[in-house]
Sequence to fold (292 residues):
Amino acid sequence: MENSQFKSQKAHQKFLKFYDEAMEKLPVPQGTFDINTAYGNVRVYRFGNRGGIPILLFPGRAASTPMWEPNLTGLLKTHDVYAMDLLGEPGLSIQTHPIKDNKQQASWVEEVIMKLKLTKVHLLGVSFGGWSVVNYAVNYPKCIASIILLDPALVFAPFSLKIILFSLITTLPFIPEKWREKSMSWISGGAEIDSQNSTSILISIGLKEFTIKTPPPKQFTAEELNSIHPPVLVIFAGKSIVHNSVKALVCAKNLSNHVEAEVWPAASHAINGEFPDQINERISQFLSGLGM
Fold:
């Protein structure tokens, strides 16, 4: 198997059921697109119809568009928003050809942006979605108006031992379900996970039942990070288990003066769902400061 996909049709159907339920909690999309790229078909939704430079959302690992439910309404107060399911991750995007390196990981994003005819776009990514944003920016910088990263994984600091353990617990087939639930709580800073929440269920199914065949992400070099010229806002979670946020903050601040970096001490890696109003307010402040 060369392409990312669900391990069984039964698991896929279960995922689709909860995906539909989760999407009903989001604002109604103004447009739904299935964009054909060299590596597969990418599902994209457009929310809002105000014009101007839109925000393009990159969800975290094993997540998809429904994870943005806490943030969408707030973001739509100032900007149109495009949300996509990442190629090679569980969602409605379907990988059809092997993705072999970081350049190819970025090239399908470029195809999506070109086919949507977005000449300028703000990029917003959380966790692995933050890595995907930076990977795109390193390879295709021309259309980027600004970059917003929420506790980005493997961008400014290496993975911690805790997140490696989390990955093993959530993906190995013989791990008891109670352990998986505990680990989901762990990454959320100890908060109790609602087992009836369709978005939480989606992530759990994705971690367990979806086989990812894209290349493992590699941490960016200082040279690669310094090649990024659009304004950047990065918010690290003080309780993140993904990395050492203090060290990540130091790295980000050492890059250049166009990077605004801060740590939110009370936040876990699930920062976008924990502090949606504060996140949206900070993003609005950042973008209005740029006149965008």
The longest strand covers residues 40-47.
